[in-house]
Each structure stands twice: as C-alpha cells, then as structure tokens.
C-alpha cells in the first residue's frame, strides 16, 4: 500500500504543485477579503459627511455621561426643497447646514462634538456639558 502512495506521489506533474499553490494563495486572499468586508461599516454619510445613525447611537452610548446634552436640529422644509429644486439641491442644503453649525460651534469654542444625520432633515448633536451652560 505504501508503494502505491509513493508511486502516485512521484508521478504528479509539476503543474499540479503550481495550481495547488495558486489555489492556496487565492483562498487566503479571499478569506482576508471577507474579513475586511466585514469591517467595512460606513461611519459617515456620503451626503452630509456626518455620522450615520447606527454609528452615532453606538458612539453616544459610550460617550453619554451625567453632564451631556443632546440637541436635535431639524430642517422642516427639506421635502419642499427636494420637490421644488431637486434632490441635489436638497443634499447641498444638508451639507451647508452641517458646515454652518460646525462654524457656529467653533465660534463658541465648542469643538470635537459628534453630529449625526438621523433621517431626512434631522440631525443629532452631542455636546459635553450641562444644558444651562450650553
């Protein structure tokens, strides 16, 4: 029985070894690709460049302390802007509002705060500190 195994082993073509090695390399690459895609969760939205709802919720669960204030910013007429002027202009309004709020808070010496787009024209802003002070 052992002589049959040796005979079969010795009769393998060199192309078998090359193909086996290529298969192994591509299998390892595919496994790493799947692992990488598993971590490919977007953190920021494409349009407003703020945190996604899912990431913001995870972030706030960790960050919220006793003295933490959440602020809701809502653009009430976003649907009308999208209908009348088009979705691209509605997206521009979302970006401009985020930039305006960022500059506003920077002028008030408030930096490094999370801002997330919840839905439509609604944004959540997390600020460290008591509501009265802010």
Q: Would you count the extended β strands for me? A: 3
Q: Structural class per helix/strand content?
A: alpha+beta
Q: Radius of gyration, rounded?
A: 27 Å
**Straight-line distance between termini:** 84 Å
Low-confidence sequence ranges: none
The percent range for helix content is: 55-70%
- Major beta sheet, strand line-up: 1-3-2
Overall mean confidence score, pLDDT = 85
Tally of helical runs: 5
Topology pattern, helix = H, strand = E:
HHHEHHEE
Provide the number of structural domains.
2
Shape: elongated
- Please outline the major beta sheet: 3 strands, antiparallel
Describe this structure in words.
This protein is α+β, with helices and mostly antiparallel strands and 134 residues long. The chain has two domains: 2-38; 53-128, no CATH class. The protein has five helices and three strands; from the N terminus they run αααβααββ. A three-stranded antiparallel β-sheet has the order 1-3-2, with helices on one face. A hairpin with a 2-residue loop joins β2 and β3 (122-128). α4 (78-85) crosses α5 (87-107). The radius of gyration is 27 Å and the shape is elongated.
Keywords:
alpha+beta; 3-stranded antiparallel β-sheet; 3 strands
Sequence-ordered SSE layout with sheet pairings:
Layout: H1 2-10, H2 14-38, H3 53-63, E1 68-74, H4 78-85, H5 87-107, E2 115-119, E3 122-128
Antiparallel strand pairs: 1-3, 2-3
Report a brief summary of the structure.
By secondary structure, the protein is of the alpha+beta class.
